[in-house]
Amino acid sequence: MAARPRLRLRLKWPSIPKSLWARLFVGIALLEVLAVVCIEGYVIKRTVNIYKYGTESQWGFGMQNESNKMTITQQSFIVYDVMFIVAQLFLLMLCWEAVAHKNTIQIIAATLFNVMCLAYALIQYTTFYIHPSTSAGIFQKDSDMRILSVTTMVVYALCSVAFAMLSWELYRMFGWKTYKKLGANLKLRRAYKWHQILLTLLKLDVFFFIAYSVQLATLVLRVSDPETWVQIGVVIPGSVVFLVLSFWALKVEKKRVMIAVIVCLGLSPAYFIYKLVRMNVGIDKANDPYLDSRKYLTFFIVVTLALVLVTVCASIKCYRNFGIGLKEAIADYEERKAQLKANSALEGAGADKGPMTGARYEYADVHERFALE
């Protein structure tokens, strides 16, 4: 009895088109990741050394004044640097996936996300060197740290300009793909555009929801505060599950689930507005838990709030497009694309194994009818 072949699970990364512009886009993202990871990795190491080997007179440890009794730990400063690294890995994923799937909406979103990283770097530089708080003043006497902060901003600025230029070239190059995917039906093409916009917004929501919650839990909240455990145990995993359901509802066009998504997203701005008010109104200056994190949290709250509002509008637009045939058109495209790949594989096998068999003639005209890639 012949042995049954073993099943193997193969994870395959989506391939990048052979276009020069596409490869430059991903290549610049990869170089930016390497540069920022190296810089922030060294900053983390230097921060640890400052706390470990520095003296109070050299670094300003324990600097306090009458209006502020708060000090900040090295773990809190490290959180900021880790956020840069995580953001860069997320950006690389956005760029790779956008180019691999020829998604012009996501290409533009990746460019805007890089600009947001530049804004975050500017906030960090301002907090440490232009208007430093008492606890953030430990870095003012370290010229190397200042140079590294400036270098990070320069890297983000140069890459933002490069992404903007390449985005235009890629937009012109990939614009034809939608026509090939859905044909000349303008209604379907408009629906597909909103479909791509919502998918991209949900990916950004995942990052900003989690990043905000992690910063709030690690920089502000305390172990004894019940809100800390609610944030870690409920808000973070709940946000992930909720956004996964959003992806699923969009893909399979589940109207009831999408209605729930729209309602929950529509209510969430009330929470972010509440947090903004709580961070800035009625704070005891002698015991301010937001002293060093207010600018960072405000940035994430404002960006997340804007994303949520845009996501609600895009969700409503996609909900109204459910049932017009977009899901079937995308599925049909994927089926035709699979047929084309099967045909190419059969043709390649025919070059090595002689004339085509009857089974291979079944897809003989696929390439002529559906030249998708």
Structure, briefly:
The chain has 373 residues and is mainly alpha-helical. The protein is built from twelve helices and no strands.
Q: What radius of gyration results from the CA coordinates?
A: 25 Å
Using the alpha-carbon principal axes, give the shape: globular
Specify the biggest β-sheet: none
What's the count of strands?
0
Give the amount of beta strand, in percent: under 5%
Kindly state the mean pLDDT as a whole number? 75
Task: Tell me roughly what share of residues is in helical segments.
Answer: over 70%
Termini separation (Å)?
Answer: 43 Å
Keywords: Membrane, Transmembrane, Transmembrane helix
InterPro entries: UPF0658_Golgi
Transmembrane segments: 20-44, 77-95, 107-127, 147-171, 197-217, 229-250, 257-277, 297-319
Could you outline the blueprint of secondary structure elements for this entry?
Layout: H1 20-53, H2 56-59, H3 74-100, H4 104-130, H5 143-182, H6 186-220, H7 226-252, H8 255-280, H9 294-320, H10 326-353, H11 358-361, H12 366-369
Helix pairs in contact: 1-3, 1-5, 3-4, 3-6, 4-5, 6-7, 6-9, 7-8, 8-9
Tell me about this structure.
This protein is mainly α and 373 residues long. The protein has three domains: 17-181, no CATH class; 191-314; 329-369. It has helices spanning 20-53, 56-59, 74-100, 104-130, 143-182, 186-220, 226-252, 255-280, 294-320, 326-353, 358-361, 366-369. α3 (74-100) runs antiparallel to α6. The longest helix is centred in the middle third of the chain and has 40 residues, at 143-182. The two termini are 43 Å apart. The model is unreliable at 7-11, 55-71 and 355-373 (pLDDT under 50).
